[in-house]
User: Which sequence fits this backbone?
């Protein structure tokens, strides 16, 4: 079966711009989570969506936002980009039981210049 | 708050040697525990998970981990390292009631020498 698909794979943006990243979960998975991965901070949880509702949120500024559509696809948006937003952004999906584990996509590598 | 500590940011072993990657967690209630592997420029792949069933968990690629509540540990082992095991490994914990959120350790880079 198809895995978690993230687009685009690579992105270069200028400071001050905004960006939208997309994530298509595994069919049947209704929970989608987003993580930011940087060399300095490691893997940090951004937020989780379930049935189009944000169910959990990490400690990131309001410039980071997301949404989920009725088909469970999710997008995250970062406004007013800063150099420090350069990172690998990972999306993970699951059915709705934390014990099932989470399947990750290959990520979107965002570079802010 | 939950936390995960991985002892050793870099571990180097010879091909064929035992692999031992250490993970300790802090939790007041039994959590769900996971080990993930990440190859360069890729996402995370689930190796194995503990969900309060058997304390010895077997995963893919010959890896296994043992949940020890008394030591709050969930160390990852593999009897014989292969060159293809060279990657970064992450231990993660999830609250049973905190869906969608994994808390990760800082990761351990495994180097396998020929």
Assistant:
């Amino acid at each position: 079966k198809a895995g978690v698909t993230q687009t685009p794979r690579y992105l270069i943006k200028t400071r001050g711009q905004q960006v939208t990243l997309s994530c298509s979960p595994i069919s049947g998975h209704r929970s989608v989570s987003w993580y930011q991965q940087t060399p300095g901070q490691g893997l940090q949880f951004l937020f989780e969506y379930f049935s189009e509702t944000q169910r959990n949120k990490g400690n990131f500024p309001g410039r980071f936002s997301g949404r989920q559509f009725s088909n469970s696809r999710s997008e995250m948006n970062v406004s007013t980009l800063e150099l420090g937003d350069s990172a690998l952004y990972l999306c993970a999906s699951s059915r709705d039981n934390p014990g099932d584990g989470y399947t990750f996509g290959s990520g979107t590598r965002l570079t802010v210049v | 708050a939950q936390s995960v500590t991985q002892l050793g940011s870099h571990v180097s072993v010879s091909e064929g040697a035992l692999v031992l990657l250490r993970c300790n967690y802090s939790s007041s209630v039994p959590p769900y525990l996971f080990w993930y592997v990440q190859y360069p420029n890729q996402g995370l792949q689930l190796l194995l998970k503990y969900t309060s069933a058997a304390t010895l968990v077997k995963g893919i690629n010959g890896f296994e981990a043992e949940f020890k509540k008394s030591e709050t540990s969930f160390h990852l082992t593999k009897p014989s390292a292969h060159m293809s095991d060279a990657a970064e490994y992450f231990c993660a914990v999830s609250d049973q009631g905190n869906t969608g959120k994994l808390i990760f350790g800082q990761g351990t880079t495994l180097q396998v020498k020929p």
User: Anything to note?
Assistant: Residues 63 and 91 of chain A are 18 Å apart (CA to CA). The first strand of chain A starts at residue 5 and ends at 7.
